[in-house]
Design brief:
globular
């Protein structure tokens, strides 16, 4: 997941040399920029290492799991395979291949379905892949995938498609992907410390809401069935009354609440240990896709600002 160049044996062979060249220059030193028509192995290794370290610090990549399925002849020879990975509720099919002598007999479909069934058993409900126009778009459409993006310009008549299929998660009464917002943030503190920034109304009032907003709390009863009523004050002076009822509260694990006034939605905030840090999950499910789409431009940015403010408030905790 994290090493786009890790499969290149030359990079691995030169890893030690690359790291010896990885000392960062002083910020005051003049920079030079070079462009290459090939790939300097050691320099590429430094970039790959730096990007991998940054990704590891920002997200729980240890949860990414490989997944594969193979078809074999009676002699045990591999004549086809599906290779990919899962992460949370998402599954990526990276490669699907069948030997030419075995195409047209359902082998590819069987590989894809066996692969997807194992991913579903891991809790996946969103499946995605990339394919070119000279590859297998019609095949994937028959499996229920839909092209959600198209890129042209590679060569005359060639296009690349990202294709997605979303299934109803097992055990859920309804499908919500088209009416929800989901984001997350890794914060450098324990789940207990991050939860305290939510459970203590004195701290919560300082970070809840988009950038520039302030809050006045009237009631804050953090327990299942408890009420939370407050007014958000916008920078332009507009007041926005809010009424919330808590549905589930598990200290330092999760908070589930129903927002009743104005836009109705159910929100789930989770606090998961990520080493010495915390992965904060942030999910809002609205009544309809139309309601979700109507306020998407505002909410997407507001949610990120909320998490920015949460991270800043956690740093202030004694």
């Amino acid at each position: 997941m994290r090493r786009g160049l890790a499969a290149d044996e030359a990079l691995a062979e030169n890893a030690a040399l690359a790291l010896t060249r990885c000392a960062a220059p002083r910020m005051s030193d003049p920079l030079s920029f070079t462009v290459h028509d090939d790939l300097p192995v050691e320099d590429a290794r430094i970039v790959d290492q730096g990007l991998g370290d940054a990704n590891d610090a920002a997200a729980p990549l240890q949860d990414v799991r490989p997944l594969s399925c193979f078809a074999r002849s009676p002699a045990g020879t591999v004549i086809g395979g599906a290779v990919g990975r899962t992460w949370g509720e998402c599954c990526e099919l990276q490669q699907l291949w069948v030997h030419p002598d075995h195409r047209g007999g359902g082998t590819g479909s069987r590989l894809a379905k066996e692969f997807e069934q194992r991913a579903a058993a891991r809790g996946c409900s969103t499946f995605y892949l990339d394919t070119f126009s000279f590859q297998a778009r019609p095949f994937y459409e028959r499996l229920g995938y839909e092209a959600v993006s198209e890129i042209r310009g590679f060569a005359p008549g060639i296009a690349k498609y990202t294709m997605v299929r979303r299934d109803k998660p097992s055990g859920e009464d309804e499908w919500t992907l088209d009416r929800e917002f989901v984001t997350s943030r890794v914060i450098a503190a324990s789940p207990e410390r991050v939860f305290r920034a939510f459970s203590d109304p004195a701290h919560l009032a300082r970070w809840w809401g988009p950038e520039g907003f302030t809050s006045t709390f009237e009631t804050f009863d953090l327990r299942p069935g408890g009420a939370w009523r407050f007014v958000l004050h916008a920078p332009d002076g507009t007041d926005y009354p809010n009424e919330i009822v808590f549905v589930d509260v598990a200290p330092a694990q999760r908070v589930v609440l129903d927002h009743l006034g104005g836009h109705h939605f159910r929100m789930t905030i989770t606090f998961a240990a990520h080493g010495e840090r915390t992965l904060v999950g942030w999910r809002q499910v609205f009544d309809t896709a139309a309601e979700r789409d109507r306020i998407a431009k505002v909410v997407l940015g507001a949610n990120e600002q909320n998490l920015d403010r949460l991270a800043e408030e956690v740093l202030k905790l004694a």
